[in-house]
């Protein structure tokens, strides 16, 4: 055995000599990589700043004492996530759930050529799993399997692919057969719960499932890491009833009916989304880009992408300040008007005169001027979820390097920036507020960030 090992080592040395490294330690090159700025995001170069209240704490909360902290570079969405962008997530999940049910029904119904993909036989079989024939063939098709499919313990033979080559038929009069009718009826409310002649979808049926690992807990513990992996199942449709529930004795039905769905509001920030839904969207956005890169399969390019996520509270405040030290607002301050007496953000000015800033509710996500980093509406319009749990004393004990205090048992999550219905105090970049993770509001939205790989020195060489 010792002789075999020696021969193996010699063989390795011979192989290494053929790489022109002259026996020197030259390192192993990874795949070619260049920074890729995600669409709709800007690069925020990291650095140190004084986090917390630079002005007098009018509310006397004493929850944001000044502290010097440092954050690394990251990408951030130029605007809040819009209705159009969130609809892309909702429609993807909706269509995935419907196609899954159609494919499962096709598998049990029989009577057709399953898994052809893209065909149109006029039955539910058009929506069968794309690899259904391979699964049905079983061992007879083993000679066509790859070594991964034959030998890997990670291969799941029941992992069937949805057929996206044919459009879902939504119009009842065009349903192809009885099985299709049975599936589709499950996703709509009964006729006695619909009105105005509309056939309304049961939005509670459309859920997104993803897994998340508590890396901090896993890193400090020993044992099976499966104990730290948790699956989340989240309803994806925003709660449009917030336009009614948030305000008593106020007529907001038009916003309830049209704000999320109508094209007139496509470029407005999505609201009615709780913290859990914002996290689910972030995961889907990551998987969506990763799936595209895998399918494209460009040579020497990794399909792994940096995760989209909610910003930490420190990242959000650093970005909101736009490079200004000790500023009250993203534009500096201390006033909320410019030299032409125009308001600089969408909020509640003049003791409740909502229209004084020419906006009764929300405005377009790219309204008003951006701050020094090119970010729009970091104050006003809608408040924004961040990936931090609210604790009035957290500034006292959080790290000064990439600080973040996020306790999964603490359901109070920080929101920042103030909104269209808030007074100017909540627009201050240092003001902290919170809402419960499972609560949606008509004045809370979010935006994503993504890690920048490398350090700030890379920025000057680009």
Automatic annotation (TrEMBL):
Gene3D superfamilies: paralog of FGE (formylglycine-generating enzyme). GO terms for molecular function: formylglycine-generating oxidase activity. InterPro entries: CTDL_fold, Glid_motil-assoc_lipo_GldK, Sulfatase_Mod_Factor_Kinase, SUMF_dom, SUMF_sf. Residues 40-92, 239-449 form the Sulfatase-modifying factor enzyme-like domain. This is Protein involved in gliding motility GldK. It comes from Psychroflexus salarius.
